[in-house]
Amino acid sequence: MANAGSRRTKFVLDEDRIPRAWYNIAADLRTAPPPPLHPGTHQPIGPADLAPLFPMALILQEVSTDREIEIPDPVREAYALYRPSPLYRAHRLEAALDTPAHIYYKYEGVSPAGSHKPNTALSQAFFNKQEGVKRIATETGAGQWGSAMSFAGAVFGLEVKVYMVRASYDQKPYRRILMETYGAEVVASPSLTTNYGRAVLAQTPDSPGSLGMAISEAVEDAATRDDTKYALGSVLNHVLLHQTVIGLEAQEQMAMAGEQPDVIIGCAGGGSNFAGLTFPFIGQMLRGEASYRIIAAEPEAAPSLTRGVYAYDFGDTGHMAPIVKMHTLGSDFIPEPIHAGGLRYHGMSPLVSLLKEDGLIEATSVHQRACFDAGVTFARAEGILPAPEPTHAIKVAIDQALEAREAGEERVILFNLCGHGHFDLAAYERHLAGTLEDYEYPAEKVTEALAALPRV
Amino acid sequence: MANAGSRRTKFVLDEDRIPRAWYNIAADLRTAPPPPLHPGTHQPIGPADLAPLFPMALILQEVSTDREIEIPDPVREAYALYRPSPLYRAHRLEAALDTPAHIYYKYEGVSPAGSHKPNTALSQAFFNKQEGVKRIATETGAGQWGSAMSFAGAVFGLEVKVYMVRASYDQKPYRRILMETYGAEVVASPSLTTNYGRAVLAQTPDSPGSLGMAISEAVEDAATRDDTKYALGSVLNHVLLHQTVIGLEAQEQMAMAGEQPDVIIGCAGGGSNFAGLTFPFIGQMLRGEASYRIIAAEPEAAPSLTRGVYAYDFGDTGHMAPIVKMHTLGSDFIPEPIHAGGLRYHGMSPLVSLLKEDGLIEATSVHQRACFDAGVTFARAEGILPAPEPTHAIKVAIDQALEAREAGEERVILFNLCGHGHFDLAAYERHLAGTLEDYEYPAEKVTEALAALPRV
């Protein structure tokens, strides 16, 4: 649905156009989401089960079926530090590809932490603060989420403790220093500060850690301290909810551009940036108001939506988190060390999984070298250096644009550029030097891991 | 001149408000700028002397006295990748300082290269391309300018060769990789690719290099190849001219805010970001239309405006560049290794120097630890992590805000946040660990260096 229009590069909105409410897709779903189960009893869990970990406002958002959930003024004021984020028309990328397609991207790298993660970190920090919480415990792998939560803690006056996977802690000091500059306390996980961490270290003193271990440490920290709650950066309903500001703004900006997208693309690990852009558009589809092609771009090394099963599974390796129905490769499955650390997750958010099951979205998986090629092409055309995660979306967007060239059609493509790659240049160096590896889909490992699904 | 107004955080402009012309302060100067002299003959140089290094369009801009110089459409289109840049009201910093002052900052870190440098890099790339130049040779110290020129080369289809000071090349690989991702060729200087580099290496095989040496290599490269010109990132009149988009936009944005600044602050090394913000305001002063207090913030380790002499001196260590009249600490003076690499320069742009001499601007010098303290305060309040260079402007802005608190006055403060610090986190780590050093003003070294001023 292309429109001639003038050559405009960016569509910017004043801060009074920051959305006043998040969009809750639960209100429009065709199928009710299967309930999360208690990891011990396998019975549906209620708000009380989650109270040690989350403030009540977030627990209620997790289960709400209201279509709109108001964004409190202090959160909108904090959003104004970087929102509304710009929507770009990628004129130079289109020219480089010699395509009649119109390519648009929403750019979330303008946030101080450099990705979409602050959209929920600020919201979570606010609701915790409002309920008297003094301190947040959380985990981080490569550091995107930890940076966002540290920034949000500085904004709302909360102490933040980040359990950072030991391997990243040692190899990626810049992200750690950024968190510390925001005032957070960062410790390598496994650490000596939790029972779980001590137990791991007693057995494996040189453990490189894993996201699963770090989650366990942060959960233990929060569950054992009255002043502390836990925060998670993806997967959960309320996290995806907070990210819908991305899509709500994009709808207004596409209207400014006088076009509607034919295809909407986001990379998907836990699902939060994908959901943030697409849910408001999918809502229109669910309400019969519009029709779009929606594509989740996954890494070939962790293709939960494209190759996993839709089943009840644990969200964490330690089997302490609720059991949820989702697309999964098995909670014991550990993806190969691709540089898109944010996409190295065995499962997928239950809401995104349900939409895939209901046929509202498609998924495709891509290899990391092709993604970095797409990232370099993008950087040379548009200037912005993308993080490894959104290069997956860029790769699929470029494929769409080339397909449109073959078909000779003015396809309108919209994707989410969820963060910049300023802390990922070591990966670009490896790519430019030709030493980056592709990892084939590990069918056997997945088969093994899926054999251990919980019987519910 | 404060105004109550509503609580707005950002003032954004649509891309059709990108200025259509640069502001040339030469049109309004009270004193004519002393002519640059040939380094060999000590005679005034003309356009022909510069032709081997620069395209004629830039040489004409260098000597123009037209008040407005039109920005070509392709440059405005490239600017649209990140301009107009936002103007922020620092509500959270004001609250943290408990000051009645209103603090505004113009944020240039939104450019793909992360600083104000692309404002001139894109312009220089365009004018070179227009005159058939195929290749640009340039130097870079810490890498801000090299990144900007590499980005600009990618945008306008020019090959870029960057001579990067060896010490930075080894210690700051991320900036190098960013340049390479944009497609530039980066070589450690001194290199084996120039006569000058080979001569240095023959004498000192393990030379860590210096900005002076790297300039000499880039100049030799450009002067000895027909397809190549040279590009410089600060100091020269045409470079400062291109940066005036910053101040022109800021004037429009301050009008949106309904306020006029009382004090305007920029950090100053070669002078380009300082000039970019302040020249359009100083132009109003020169024309008798307004009155502002204008402050250049210098590092105590290289305080050319505050402690140097106003005299004819060489711009480079190798004494190959024109001799210009400026505030200088002597071309043999090598500043201590402060982290604000962009401020480690012995001289100051001739135009900024002249304005200081004519009493239109003030200058003050600050120590780096106090600047990093200011940077951390700023990051925790406003989210954005500043580069070490603009922490000098932040420090002076905070001092102004605290002074306003003492005086109980609603002083309106505007400063230039010329870049982010995503590639400078090692310096923040040292600061947070308390191992950063302050360097006293090196009076003796300066006295020695000034004894070697050219006799003209």
Write up what this structure looks like.
- 2 copies of one chain form a homodimer.
- By secondary structure, chain A is α/β, with parallel strands linked by helices.
- Chain A has a domain at 9-19 and 73-114 and 239-450: Rossmann fold.
- Helices cover 41% and strands 16% of the residues of chain A.
- The first copy, chain A, contains 19 helices and 15 strands.
- Chain A has a 7-stranded mixed beta sheet, with helices on both faces.
- The longest helix of chain A has 20 residues, at 388-407.
- Chain A is globular and about 60 Å long.
- The termini of chain A are far apart.
- In chain A, 61% of the residues are buried.
- The model of chain A is unreliable at 1-5 (pLDDT under 50).
Write a concise synopsis of the structure shown.
2 copies of one chain form a homodimer. Chain A has 456 residues and is α/β, with parallel strands linked by helices.
